[in-house]
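Field log, afternoon session.

UNIT: design team B
ACTIVITY: writing a sequence onto a fixed backbone
BACKBONE:
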């Protein structure tokens, strides 16, 4: 398996309840740079991420019913 094939098995994820447009931009920029398969985001962020990933083969997936405990994401 090549590096290019391997990276297409990974999703890049930000399910942070209070993610800003800047967080989503960073997520999508990284997904594009590394050529990940998909970004996984809360459903409210789908339209924005679709815009950021236009003309790429990175998919956008929405997590439905994901627990939004912001304490899980203290790295932001």
């Amino acid at each position: 398996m090549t590096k290019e094939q391997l990276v297409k098995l990974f999703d890049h994820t930000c399910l942070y309840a209070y993610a800003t447009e800047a967080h989503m931009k960073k997520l999508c920029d990284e997904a594009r740079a590394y050529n990940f398969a998909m970004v996984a985001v809360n459903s409210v962020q789908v339209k924005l991420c679709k815009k950021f990933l236009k003309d790429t083969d990175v998919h956008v997936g929405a997590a439905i019913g994901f627990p939004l405990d912001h304490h899980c994401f203290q790295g932001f």
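LOG NOTE: The chain has a mean pLDDT of 87.
NEXT ACTIVITY: expression trials, pending approval
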